[in-house]
Design a protein that fits this description.
Elements (H helix, E strand, L loop, with lengths): L2 E2 L11 E3 L11 E5 L3 H13 L3 E5 L2 H7 L8 E6 L7 H10 L5 E6 L5 H8 L4 E4 L2 E2 H13 L4
Parallel strand pairs: 3-4, 3-5, 5-6, 6-7
Antiparallel strand pairs: 1-8, 2-4
Helix pairs in contact: 3-4
Amino acid sequence: MERIQPSNVGCQDHNTTMKSPLSIQDPVPLIYVVEDNCAIRDSLELLLHTCGWQVHLFAHGSDFLDQLPIEPQQPCCLLLDIHLPDINGAELQEQLQARLWPASTILLTAQPHNPLVQRALNAGAVTVMGKPFEARDLLQLIRATLSNQPH
């Protein structure tokens, strides 16, 4: 099984958007990735794009918050690293909760028992996935999360 973990191959240091073709019948889910490790971010982009999902990547929480739509127009999910250079994942999740942002958050962390994880869960994140993780496990979790949304 493919494991998602850090490496130094193919890193992009900027925020990027990769769009998949839209279906007329169902909106294509949008997956936001807020992860400062460029190798993990790039690996997630490739993995998620193979599922046909739109993918928006951010290395910093503040960049994500600056570009956050008020009301997503399609099913979406946030993959959120708990340790970011500018804001921690718990603070970011608390800001999302204050904005009543409806998308589900999956926390990504190498330290699942960190107090910040519990704080983010208390602020509305749906679950936590420990790093490294199996690609199929993450995809199952994302699909389950998307299927529980009202879109």
